[in-house]
Write a structure and sequence with these properties.
Strand content: 15-25%
CATH architecture: Orthogonal Bundle
Number of helices: 5
Structural class: alpha+beta
CATH class: Mainly Alpha
Number of domains: 1
CATH topology: Arc Repressor Mutant, subunit A
Length: 114
């Protein structure tokens, strides 16, 4: 069994974090969708406070990574974009959370602790 390297940071190197998820707007989208079955574009727009263009770009990046399924259609005569987290996206967010928990576990709970 290999001994841990005393020079390596606890929880592994920070570079191991999924950079697709780590970006704040995409992390917000992933965590919002994690607790929902699906959401439409306007709901995500209101929840995140992103602009339409910014939201579209982040959704496209997450879809390209296989983390989201985006279905465009119509609700009556109005265009409707529905977004759902894929199983791959759900698993990636769980791995991301576990990695962050390991990285942060070495920090004191408050500034009062040594």
């Amino acid at each position: 069994m290999k001994k841990p390297d005393p020079e390596s940071p606890p929880g592994g190197p920070p570079g191991d974090l999924d950079k697709t998820i780590h970006e704040p707007a995409r992390l917000l989208l992933m965590t919002t969708l994690f607790v929902l079955e699906s959401a439409d574009f306007l709901f995500l727009l209101n929840q995140t406070g992103l602009t339409r263009g910014n939201l579209s770009v982040h959704l496209q990046k997450l879809e390209s990574a296989g983390f989201l399924n985006i279905v465009k259609g119509y609700s009556g005569r109005r265009p409707n974009t529905n977004v759902r987290l894929t199983e791959s996206g759900r698993a990636a967010l769980i791995r991301y959370r576990e990695k962050m928990e390991r990285l942060l576990s070495v920090l004191p709970r408050s500034t009062d602790e040594p």
